[in-house]
Amino acid sequence: AMEKSRPLWDNPLQFVFACISYAVGLGNVWRFPYLCQMYGGGGFLIPYFIMLIAEGMPLLYLELAVGQRMRQGSIGAWKIISPYLCGVGVASVVVSFFLSMYYNVINAWAFWYLFHSFQDPLPWATCPLNSNRTGYEEECEKTSSTQYFWYRQTLNISPSLEASGSVQWEQALCLTLAWLVVYLCILRGTEANGKGRGSGRRPAEPQREVVYVTASLPYCVLIIYLIRGLTLHGAVNGLVYMFTPKLEQLSNPKTWVSAATQIFFSLGLGFGSLIAFASYNEPSNNCERHAVIVSLINSTTSIFASIVTFSIYGFKATFNYESCINKVILLLMNAFDLEEGSLTADNLNEMKDYLMATHPQEYMQLLPQLKNCSLEAELDTAVQGTGLAFIVYSEAIKNMEVPQLYSVLYFVMLLMLGIGSMLGNTAAILTPLTDSRVIAARFPKEVISGVVCFINCMIGLIFTMEAGNYWFDIFNDYAATLSLLLIVLVETISVCYIYGIRRFEKDLHTMIGRKPNWYWKIMWAFVSPLLIISLFIFYLTDYILTGTLQYQAWDATQGQLVTKDYPGYALAVIGLLVAASTMCIPLGALVTFIRKRLKRENVSTV
Amino acid sequence: MLRVLLLTLSLVAIAHAELCKPDAQNAFKVRLSIKTALGDNAYVWDANEEYLFKAMVAFAMRRYSSKNTTQISNVLLCNVTDRVSFWFVVTDSSKNVTTVSGSEVEAAIRMNRNRINSAFLLSDKTLQFLKITSTLSPPVEPSTPVWLIVFGVVLCLIVAGIVFLIAAGIQQRKKKNKESTERENLEEKGEVTVTVENGIPCETLDLKAGHINGVFAADDERYTSL
Question: Residue A417 annotated as binding?
Answer without folding.
Answer: yes
